[in-house]
UniProtKB/TrEMBL annotation:
InterPro entries: ABC_transporter_permease (IPR051393), MetI-like (IPR000515), MetI-like_sf (IPR035906). Keywords: Cell membrane, Membrane, Transmembrane, Transmembrane helix, Transport. Belongs to the binding-protein-dependent transport system permease family. It comes from Sulfitobacter mediterraneus. The keyword Transmembrane applies. Pfam families: BPD_transp_1. This is Sorbitol ABC transporter membrane protein /mannitol ABC transporter membrane protein. It is a multi-pass membrane protein. The chain crosses the membrane at residues 12-37, 69-94, 106-123, 158-179, 200-224, 230-248, 260-282. The keyword Transport applies. One of its GO terms (biological process) is transmembrane transport. Residues 69-278 form the ABC transmembrane type-1 domain.
Amino acid sequence: MATKASRSAARVMMAPAVILLLGWMLVPLTMTLWFSFRKYLPLRGGDLGWAGFDNYTRFVTSSAFWPSIQATLIIVGAVLLITVCLGVVLAMLLDQPMWGQGVVRILVIAPFFVMPTVSALVWKNIFMDPTNGLFAHLWKFFGADPVSWLSQASLPSIILIVSWQWLPFATLILLTAIQSLDSEQLEAAEMDGAPHLKRFWFIILPHLARAITIVVLIQTIFLLSIFAEIFVTTGGAFGSKTLTYLIFQRVLESQNVGLGSAGGVYAIILANIVAIFLMRIVGKNLDA
């Protein structure tokens, strides 16, 4: 049992890490809040004084604000749906005995280690190029006109690229969960004559609930700040501009730090709303 002295010693040893972590989070947040109330134009006069809530009003009344919120939520929801559903399927397939199982698992998980910028360039130039891309040649083979994916179907293209990146992560987490499943339950259900679908629905899926929850929560944190894939492929055009990309445009392209900081505060609010929603919907699985 921990004594009072040992608990005090533990607090003292943890204090530097806690202080560093708080500083790491609070200093940028404080600066963002400060600049959001200032009219700060680095290349056009610098700090021009107090702006009040003008930056917040300008950002939220911008014609690009609500479309960026919509695009962000569509990308997050679609990628989560694709990665969780396909992740469950791939995890079940990879759990089956096969020749070269280790190599197959490595190949399936490998895309997760590719940098977002590199994977976006690969998809843009090798697969989705309307002239020399693989999809263009495939369309021509079947007698159809090639599709300019990044302009005619920009949002689905972004979703496809990001899903390809995050599918290995979901598969790895779900595969680990499936391997921890007691095989005797499945054998007993099979002996009782339960079909494959019922075994999946009543045994495998409930066992994967906690793993799915973890996948959804972790991916959502990163997907809300998706940027590199959009920057490399569409540049925010054709309805693919997310809230993060809109903030980038306001800060770097428009050189308006105050306006971009106000957008950053809105991004924090959106992230917290989504987090609270997810914790209420799926977070209860963590207590099961």
